[in-house]
Amino acid sequence: MSDQQDARSASRGHQLIACIVQRGRADDAVKAAIKAGAPAATISFARGTGIRERLGLLKIAISPEKEVIEIVVAAERADAVFDALVEAGKLKTPGMGFIYMVPVSRVLIHNPGPDAR
Q1: Model pLDDT for residues 41-80, shown as the tens digit of each residue
Q2: Residue of 114, 115, 116, 105 lying closest to 13 (CA atoms)
Q3: pLDDT tens across 5-39, in order?
Q4: Which residue segment(s) compose the domain that 92 sits in?
């Protein structure tokens, strides 16, 4: 990939989608995101606090162990990827997690084409 191609990929609009799901749900969510157009994802483990105590009053048990999914995606595919994560992660159900999307001001992506060796 030439420097000129790198500059073009860096100037397009991108979004960062961060999705926090219950432990064990990230793999299915990432599969759905990739199917919806995400190029790749990073999954890490975390421990949550706060909402667990509040939802406990409603008799909803929430494990503190979470998985955090981060995806940088081209702006034109961001809404489809976001919606796929919401659906696969069952994020409309109270206590299952949350998701947000923010613009990325700069990104450098080295994504060689199929002919790269």
Answers
A1: 999 999 877 665 555 555 556 677 899 999 999 999 999 9
A2: 105
A3: 444 444 469 999 999 999 999 999 999 999 999 99
A4: 3-104
pTM for this prediction: 0.76
Q: Would 40 be classed as within a structural domain?
A: yes
Contact by Cβ (8 Å): 3, 11: no
Six token digits for residue 4: 């000129």
**Into how many domains does the chain fold?**
1
C-alpha torsion sign, points 72, 78, 81, 85: positive
Structural domain includes residue 113: no
